[in-house]
């Protein structure tokens, strides 16, 4: 690909799919890494299971071939695993999988893509409101998303002077397939917890990611995108 390229993980649904569509509309070439294809015209889909320790070696050659001529690259770490459970009964295997997919995979993908990134490129992390706080029954997920925040802040420091910027976008309750699985009553309750009394549309997070990709002033920022939680 020449010109501007988006490399995104988990671009087949939810926030990832909305983001791939938004960047495609702006003329970016799109490379999606996920277990299933993004089903968007012109997208290069590369199959990747981030729970498999061998994924990075498997995708490196086709990914680098797809992006090597890019003028600039926006790398968005969107894929995530959410394993519920509180601290006293935490699923240890689930915690390991959460860290592997939510933290280790982005770090590994950075190593593959960074050598091909030119000034004007960006690395964006999709965190969560639980990147900066915690709630009951989500110990593994909150732990992994706090680690994502640390990885983003390290990215900002380590890439100083390269012309590559980074940020962590932290969505609140977003109307994705994962959230919809909780059912209508639960969704209504979640909507009642924010000042706007509704769920976030995936397209709203996609627009914020697009804005962050084009604005180096956000470098190192944690950007809350939650419609305003109502304080207890």
UniProtKB/TrEMBL annotation:
Gene3D superfamilies: NAD(P)-binding Rossmann-like Domain. The keyword Calcium does not apply. Keywords: Oxidoreductase. The keyword Oxidoreductase applies. It comes from the Bacteria. Belongs to the short-chain dehydrogenases/reductases (SDR) family. This is SDR family oxidoreductase.
């Amino acid at each position: 690909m020449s010109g501007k390229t988006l490399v995104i993980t988990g671009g087949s649904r939810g926030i990832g799919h909305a983001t791939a569509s938004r960047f495609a509309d702006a003329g970016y070439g799109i490379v999606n890494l996920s277990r299933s294809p993004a089903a968007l015209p012109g997208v290069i889909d590369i199959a990747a299971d981030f729970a498999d320790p061998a994924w990075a070696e498997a995708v490196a050659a086709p990914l680098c071939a797809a992006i090597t001529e890019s003028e600039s690259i926006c790398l968005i770490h969107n894929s995530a695993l959410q394993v519920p459970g509180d601290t006293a009964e935490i699923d240890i295997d689930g915690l390991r999988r959460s860290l592997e997919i939510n933290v280790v995979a982005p770090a590994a993908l950075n190593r593959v893509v960074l050598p091909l990134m030119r000034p004007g490129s960006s690395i964006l992390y999709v965190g969560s409101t639980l990147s900066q706080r915690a709630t009951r029954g989500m110990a593994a997920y909150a732990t992994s998303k706090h680690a994502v925040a640390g990885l983003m802040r390290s990215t900002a420091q380590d890439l100083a002077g390269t012309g590559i910027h980074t940020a962590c976008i932290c969505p609140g309750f977003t109307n994705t397939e994962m959230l919809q699985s909780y059912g209508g009553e639960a969704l209504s309750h979640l909507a009642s917890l924010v000042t706007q009394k509704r769920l976030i549309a995936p397209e709203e997070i996609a627009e914020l990611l697009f804005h962050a990709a084009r604005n180096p002033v956000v470098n190192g920022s944690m950007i809350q995108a939650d419609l305003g939680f109502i304080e207890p």
